């Protein structure tokens, strides 16, 4: 974060907010013993991250199930689409979410993000119309051929990018088995270090723990590769506050076993030893 803030190149980005960015950064975490990279220099709402991850794994692309659980992180994109189409009667976020929950026709018209992560992970549509469940195939592949070099899933479906509310940021995941442990790499093409990163790195770690449990392996290393790694210029307060704080010990995850990768429930995730510094509010660039 310090290097991006002090040495990043300043650029005008798609959102108009402006960022400082570095290109091609790597982080690695040893996740043995249940360790999770849940940041301590601000409070991260890990419960929202668990709910978002389970929403991806369930193959969901509609915001209603998130909103129903009090998770608001995806609401701004469909809301912006709605308000652009209705400049005469703009809705607040609360009013929009209330209609998404209460009105089925409204939800069908405005509540879908398009073929984003969940769709691609679970139901990638091939040219012949056949659907590919990349996560199910990944688990099978790890069980049948641990030494494989093709343990990959990706959200980057070129033919469908234009229909997505946002093209995938955490776009490609790959796994590797050695010495009874599962390791993973996440390639992230674009990273909002202030808001997105804490969720992305945590969810990649939770998913690694889930997959390892399903294939009967321990957990090894998680490597994160960021391409355009940026800080938004309106996050100065967040950056300076986090950099002034002393990091604390990583918390640990206890994951109750589930019948398969798609049967985990929120209650199966328990986090111990999380004693973060206070939360820091920051605006999200839409
Ligand atoms: N600019 C931008 N940054 C992102 O991180 C991001 C996007 N856009 N677009 C799509 C998703 C949505 N994501 C988001 C959106 C909002 C928060 C956010 O506001 N987080 C607050 C509150 C979290 C909560 O209430 O649970 C935080 O303090 O972490 C985080 C991730 C990640 N992605
Ligand atoms: O999981 C996510 C989703 C989004 N982001 C950030 C990265 C960028 O700041 C924006 C996306 O804008 P693009 O112009 O499409 O790159 O959202 C993230 O960090 N993590």
What brief labels describe this structure?
single chain, 286 residues, alpha+beta, Thymidylate Synthase, Chain A, 2 domains, 6-stranded mixed sheet, two-stranded antiparallel sheet, 10 helices, 34% helix, globular, binds 5,10-methenyl-6,7,8-trihydrofolic acid, binds ligand LAUPNLSC
Kindly describe this structure.
- The protein has 10 helices and 10 strands.
- It is an alpha+beta fold.
- The chain folds into 2 domains: 1-60 and 133-286, Thymidylate Synthase, Chain A; 62-113, no CATH class.
- The strands form 3 sheets. Strands 1-2-8-7-6-5 form a 6-stranded mixed sheet. A two-stranded antiparallel sheet has the order 3-4. Strands 9-10 form a two-stranded antiparallel sheet.
- Helix 5 crosses helix 6 (104-110).
- The mean pLDDT is 97.
- The structure holds 5,10-methenyl-6,7,8-trihydrofolic acid (MHF) and ligand LAUPNLSC.
- Residues 45, 48, 72-74, 166, 192, 195-196, 199, 279, 284-285 line the site of 5,10-methenyl-6,7,8-trihydrofolic acid.
At a glance:
With 286 residues, the chain is an alpha+beta fold. Helices cover 34% and strands 23% of the residues. The longest helix is centred in the last third of the chain and has 19 residues, at 196-214.
């Amino acid at each position: 974060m310090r290097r991006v803030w002090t040495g990043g190149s300043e650029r005008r980005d798609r959102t108009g907010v402006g960022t400082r960015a570095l290109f091609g950064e790597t982080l690695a975490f040893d996740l043995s013993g249940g360790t999770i990279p849940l940041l301590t220099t601000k409070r991260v709402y890990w419960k929202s991250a668990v709910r978002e991850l389970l929403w991806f794994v369930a193959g969901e692309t509609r915001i209603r199930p998130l909103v129903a659980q009090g998770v608001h992180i995806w609401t701004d994109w469909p809301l912006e689409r709605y308000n652009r189409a209705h400049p005469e009667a703009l809705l607040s976020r609360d009013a929009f979410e209330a209609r998404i929950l209460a009105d089925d026709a409204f939800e069908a018209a405005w509540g879908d993000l398009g073929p984003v992560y969940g769709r691609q992970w679970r139901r990638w549509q091939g040219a012949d119309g056949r659907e590919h469940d990349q996560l199910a195939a990944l688990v099978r592949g790890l069980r049948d051929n641990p030494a494989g070099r093709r343990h990959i899933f990706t959200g980057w479906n070129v033919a469908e990018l234009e229909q997505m509310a946002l093209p995938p940021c955490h776009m490609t995941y790959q796994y590797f088995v050695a010495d009874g442990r599962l390791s993973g790499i996440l390639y992230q093409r674009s990273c909002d270090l202030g808001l997105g990163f804490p969720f992305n790195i945590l969810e990649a770690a939770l998913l690694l723990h889930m997959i390892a449990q399903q294939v009967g392996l321990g957990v090894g290393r998680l490597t994160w590769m960021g391409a355009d790694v940026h800080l938004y210029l309106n996050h100065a307060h967040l950056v300076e506050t986090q950099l002034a704080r002393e990091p604390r010990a990583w918390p640990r995850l206890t994951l109750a076993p589930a019948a398969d990768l798609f049967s985990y429930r929120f209650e199966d995730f328990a986090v111990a030893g999380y004693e973060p510094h206070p939360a820091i509010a920051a605006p999200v660039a839409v």
